[in-house]
Structure formats: C-alpha cells, structure tokens
Specification:
The complex is a heterodimer of chains A (about 240) and B (about 475). Chain A is of the alpha/beta class and about 240 residues long. Helix content of chain A is about 35%, strand content about 25%. By secondary structure, chain B is mainly α. Chain B is built from 18 helices and three strands. Chain B has a three-stranded antiparallel β-sheet, with no helix packed on it. The longest helix of chain B has about 45 residues. Chain B is globular, with a radius of gyration of 22 Å. The chains are: A alpha/beta (about 240), B mainly alpha (about 475). At the A-B interface, helix 2, strand 3 and helix 3 of A face strand 3, helix 9 and helix 14 of B.
C-alpha cells in the first residue's frame, strides 16, 4: 500500500504535544498553526515529587489542569484542527509521555520551545530513523510551502549520505516539491552540538529518538539536549513500532 | 468554629465544617494508571523494587540492631526460631492486607480498608491513631539515629564523650529529613532505594562472612551450643517480644495508589519484604550466637551486634555495622514520614479531619500541611525524650490495625460488594485471617501495661474526635 503512487501521505501523522500545564507553559500561535495539519493530541501533565500522592494533586488541581488544557485545545480548534486532550498527574514525565505516545500511536512527540513564524524546517538525521514516518510527518506539516533542509550528520558507522538520499526520495514521493527541499551532509562526532550550533538558522527541528547509551543516561537523550540548547521547537520521530490495531 | 448551627440541617455525610468525603467516583484502575471520573490520568510510578524498599526499609532495624542480645538471653540459639515465628505471624497479616490492597489500590493502606469494610468509626480510630503511631515511631527512629551517629563518631575517634550529642543529632537529622520531604523536588523515594540497597549490601557481606566463619571455613568451626537451653516456651514468648521488628510491611499499602501493576506488585512487595527481612533476622541470630554463645551475647544487651562485628572484623567491622544501623534508622524514618503524610491525606480526604490537612503547595508540589503534621510533632517528641514508651505505644496501635485488617478481610468476603474484585485472593481466608487477628490482638497481651493504657487513651480520643467532628460521615462500602 505504501507503494501506491497516488497516495502521497501513507497515513495521517499523529503528534503528541506534552505541556507542563500547571506551570503556565503554553504554545505559540505560529507553532499551533504549523502543527495543525497533523492529528494532534495535547497532553497536559504535572510532575510531582514522589512524596506527593498523584491523587492528592488531582483533588486540588484537576479542574485547573483541565481548564488549561481545554484552552490550548481551543487555540488548535481556532486554527482549524480538532484535537484530542489528555490530562495526567505523574511522578515521572518520561514514563507518562512514553505511555501516552504508545497509546495514541504517536508518530512524533513535540518538545516545545518558543517559536516565531515557521518557514525553515531542519530535518536532522544522525542515526537510524523510520523514514516512512518521518516523511509522513514532514510532508503533512510543510504542505504550506515551508522550506525543508535534510541534514545528515555522519560518523560512528552511520552512512549519512545514503540516509539523506533515502529521506529525500521518500519526501519527494510524498509530494514535496524539489525547490522546497535542500540536502547536505557533514561528518561529525558531536551531532548534538552541531545541531544546536546551527539551530538559529531554523524555526523548527525534526529528528529521531536515538538509542540509549551511557551518555544519554547521564545527560538525557539527544533530542532533549537539542531542545534545551536550541531556540526552536523539536519534533522527535518515535522509533517504536505502532501498537497492533 | 461557631458555625455549627447549620450542620444539623445539612443532613447526611458531612463533617462539622460541612465537607463531605471526596469520593473520586468511577475511577478505573489499570496497571499503569488510575483514571478519574473526569478522565484525568494518575500515573503509577513505583515499581516492585520501590515497593520492597519501602517495606524492607521500614521494618529492618530492631531485629538486627536491638534484639539479638535480648532474644538470645531469653531463648538461646532458638531465638532464631522466635524470629521465624514472628515472620509467620507477619505473613498471616500481610496476606489479608495484600488481598485488600489489590482490591482497593488507594493511598491510605490499612486505614482505607478498615473504613470501607467496617465503617467510619473504626476507620477514624485507626486512621488517627496510625498517624500518631507513625509520629511516635519516627521519633523513636530519630533518637536511634542520634545514638548510632554518636557511636560512629566515638568509634571513629571524634571526642564526644561527656557531651550530650544524641538529641541534637536526632533533631538536626529530623529537621533535614522534613525539609528534604518538603522542598525536595529530587525524589525522597529514590533516596530510599539507595539507602536500603547499601544497607542490604553491608548486611549480606557481614552475615555471609559471619556464616562462613561459623561453619568453619575460616579457622575452626565454633562449637554449637545447646539449641533449646531454656525449653520451647521461651521461643514463643520471645517471638512476642521481637514481633516489633516486623511492624511496617503494611506501609507498602499506604502508597498503593502509586504502585505499578498493583495486582502483582502489592502482594509481592508485602510478602517479599516480610520474607527478606525475616531471613536476615534469622541469619543474624545464627551468626551472633555462633560467634559468642547466647550467654555472653545477652550481657552485651542492645549493642550485641556491634560486639559481634568487632569480633569478626575488628574496628572496621564495628564501624561498618554502626553505619548499617545508621542507614537502617534513616530508611525507617524516611519511609515513616512518607507514609505518615499519605495517612494524613487519606483521613483528610474522607472529611474525618479538616480538609486543609490535605492541601498541597504548587511551588514545591509537596503536601506541606500533612508533612508538617508528621515532622512537627516528631521534633517535639524527640526534644522531650521518652521515645521508648512511645515506640511501644506505636507497636500497640499497629497491632490493633493489623487485627482489624484481618477482620476487614472477613467482613469483605462475607458479603462481597459488586466492586470487590481483588487480583489476589488469600487461600483459606477464614483460617489465615482468623489466625492473623488472634495473633495480632494476642501479642498486645505481652506489652507493658503503660503502653497499653496510653494506646487505649489515644484510641478513645480518636473515637471522641470522630463523634464530635465527623459523626455523620459514612464510609462503609464507599469506594
């Protein structure tokens, strides 16, 4: 089915948008507009220290959290996209995001950052990534004509040139125009720093999850480090297979 | 205050402040979350290891660091049997508690089961007295910490002789612990895992070396002395004495709302922590009586285990075991503060005490009122002294709760409500719960009359409070 040429988007991508809702984190309107073509699931969450029962927090703050999430959903609806909302109280942010992402079959998870007008999108390839999912996501989001740079960061046995060529091929298949798309490759051992260095040139970053290593255990995974260092919002394409059904 | 005039008119199920129990309504419990009526998800984030470390961390301590000398003096090497009997009794309560916890995986533990199965009055008595009982126990652990910290300083050659450092050390640590729980965004429960892990590592090395030594791997094997020098009866009476060292396994149930896969992990954590701690206690008695024989051991009294460690490993051994004692008091105190604040939350949610007690503070995300209600009285008690009597009062109150948990299981099974669907069912429940209740209430007979009187007064005051404040609140069968 994925082969059929007239079906340019293989499946509608789902983007999970986790928001630290009680800490007043919000999404800029331009980011909402950028994401609106995808199926969006807004996850409002609040992280508690382990000495606080989640039930206790929900008793006191459930209404407030639900209202805040509903407000964010309204912004998406104004931009023309009905969204699903979830509200969660947790002791462990990653566990909750991972669980909900699995349950809704998310293509990608957003790591929010402030965003201006989104015109330049960076697709950073620095390891194995599900090219079909990546292409579904990017092709859906940039249907408005945003420019896409596919940048392969090679090194450590990762053949960047091949990955970039494959990504370019799939993106063109999905309906991107040739002049929307640029590609480049760099050989590097420090892809995270390189991406952060160049991030001011771009308005949004798309990248893969990357594997777990000792380094990611210590410093958080690559995408989180990019999101911390860069000014742009980061979309992390999930590696995990979709749930059955 | 002064606004009681309306309460008669308001009618049923409210307390003096006009608050009704906050019943969360149709919640759905899954392996990973609890989902409230409105659809908000409450993530479960404590795994089996976390559950075990709360159970083991609360319990471990007295059986190794207080009782070996006393128990060996009374029952000889058969004191190991006394600890085994204690473990069996603990299991008789842990099994019913496990079943109830899998049916009602909510914060509050024993209080929650009893209030739902037996009604609001027994619930209020248990809930309020367990809050106070945990406060007493925490004060006792803090003083224990002070003692061990002073001993470590002395052993390490710091000149503290003549200076009363125990209470100041206990107070400083108590303040630090409360502050950690109040302001700590880094998790107090994760700290618990590390403390318990390090403690277990020290004990396993110590008991392993001591055990090999006793059977003669190093040097000559020790001559086994007569196993039952005083006959079988003292084995049972000593079991009553040392049962204190098993109090705490039910604390796992106070965090039941946060445990992943509750149907599997709650029973495993409760039963597993009793078995693990029981095995360590039995091994400790075996090693201690092999090194010294029960007579000299009993003369060392409460510091017997330090002398055993000194005999086995010299000054290093003594410092290692003192450090282990220090860690044991830290883990017990920390686990108790955690479960106290959950106990306060549970009774406040049910409108048995003013709602304000369950307020939390958004900046730190911690239940500051409940933590203050745990930490504040603890510091006062430590400063005033007299914690030993209070520790026994705490044991008394725990035993009442354990007995009532067994009764609650029978009550639940007698007429099972439609919602009662535990993942784990106690086999032969009338026998297990019956024996558990008889053993729990029976052990009270072995306590000092003073502790029993104080405990009884606390229960009566709790009942009086319920009659005054929350007489109209009904909780039986309300999930």
């Amino acid at each position: 089915m994925a082969e059929s040429p007239e079906l340019s988007i293989r499946e509608p991508p789902t983007v999970l948008v986790p928001v630290r809702v009680l800490e007043g984190q919000s999404l800029s309107e331009t980011l909402v507009e950028f994401l609106a073509p995808a199926d969006v699931v807004v996850l409002g969450y609040h992280v508690l220290p382990e000495q606080t029962p989640t039930e206790q927090a929900s008793m006191q703050f459930e209404e407030r959290a639900r209202t805040a999430v509903a407000d964010i959903a309204d912004v998406f609806e104004t931009a023309g996209d009905a969204v699903e909302t979830r509200v969660a109280f947790t002791h462990d942010r990653d566990q909750t995001v991972e669980r909900v992402a699995g349950e809704v079959g998310a293509t990608a998870v957003l790591l929010p950052n402030p965003a201006g007008d989104i015109e330049e999108v960076l697709v950073a390839l620095r390891g194995v990534i599900n090219t079909d999912r990546l292409a579904d996501l990017v092709a859906t989001l940039v249907a408005g004509g945003e420019r896409v740079t596919v940048w392969g960061l090679g090194g450590d046995g990762f053949d960047a040139a091949t990955a970039v060529a494959a990504a370019r091929e799939t993106l063109l298949d999905r309906g991107l125009s040739g002049d929307q798309l640029r590609t480049e490759t760099t050989a590097t051992e420090t892809p995270v720093y390189d991406i952060i260095d160049r991030s001011p040139e771009f308005d949004a970053i798309v990248m893969g999850e990357g594997g777990e290593t000792l380094l990611t255990q210590l410093f958080g995974d690559d995408a989180e480090r990019v999101a911390e260092g860069a000014v742009a919002p980061v979309l992390v394409v999930r590696a995990a297979p979709e749930p059955p059904e | 205050m002064g606004t009681v005039d309306e309460s008669g008119a308001v009618g049923e199920n409210v307390n003096r402040d006009g608050d009704a129990p906050q019943v969360v309504g149709a919640t759905t419990v899954t392996d990973e979350t609890t989902v409230t009526e409105e659809g908000t998800e409450l993530e479960r984030s404590i795994g089996l290891v976390g559950g075990l470390s709360i159970g083991v961390g609360t319990m471990i301590g007295a059986g190794i660091f207080v009782f070996p000398g006393l128990a060996a003096g009374r029952a000889g090497p058969a004191a190991a049997g006394s600890f085994a009997i204690g473990a069996v009794i603990a299991l008789l309560v842990a099994l019913p508690a496990s079943e109830l916890a899998t049916a009602m995986p909510k914060s509050g533990g024993g209080y929650y089961f009893i209030s739902r199965a037996l009604g609001a009055l027994p619930g209020a008595v248990v809930g309020i007295s367990i809050w106070l009982g945990l406060v007493f126990a925490t004060a006792f652990y803090l003083v224990g910490f002070g003692n061990y910290a002073a001993a470590v300083l002395a052993e390490a050659g710091v000149p503290v002789a003549g200076v009363p450092v125990v209470v100041p050390l206990a107070l400083v640590f108590g303040v630090a612990l409360t502050a950690l729980n109040l302001f700590g965004t880094e998790n107090a429960a994760t700290l618990q895992n590390y403390v318990v892990g390090l403690l277990l590592a020290i004990l396993v090395v110590f008991l392993g070396y001591g055990g090999l030594d006793a059977v003669g791997v190093f040097g000559t094997p020790s001559t086994p002395e007569e196993f039952l020098p005083f006959g079988p009866f003292p084995v049972f009476s000593t079991a009553a004495l040392v049962f204190t060292s098993y109090l705490g396994f039910a604390q796992v149930a106070t965090v039941a709302g946060d445990i992943k896969q509750p149907g599997r992990n709650l029973p495993l954590a409760m039963v597993g922590s009793v078995l693990l701690v029981g095995a360590l206690y039995v091994a400790t008695i075996f090693v201690a009586t092999s090194v010294f024989g029960s007579n000299p051991l009993s003369r060392f009294g409460e510091t017997a285990i330090v002398e055993v460690a000194r005999a086995l490993g010299g000054s290093t051994g003594a410092i290692a075991i003192l450090l282990a004692g220090l860690l044991a008091t830290i883990s017990s105190a920390n686990a108790s503060v955690l479960s106290t604040s959950r106990a306060v939350f549970a009774i406040s949610k049910d409108a048995l005490i003013p709602r304000g007690a369950s307020r939390m503070n958004l900046a730190y995300g911690t239940p500051h009122v409940a933590l203050a209600m745990a930490g504040g009285p603890v510091l006062v008690l430590v400063a005033l002294g007299e914690v030993e009597v209070l520790a026994e009062v705490a044991s008394f109150l725990h035993l009442i709760m354990y007995g009532l948990i067994c009764v609650a299981l029978v009550a639940m099974r007698r007429d099972e409500p439609a919602w009662y669907d535990p993942d784990f069912r106690v086999p032969a429940y009338p026998l297990v719960a019956g024996l558990g209740a008889v053993a729990s209430f029976g052990l009270i007979a072995f306590m000092q009359p003073l502790s029993r009187r104080i405990g009884l007064v606390i229960m009566l005051v709790a009942a009086g409070w319920y009659k005054y404040y929350a007489d109209d609140v009904a909780l039986k069968g309300v999930l």
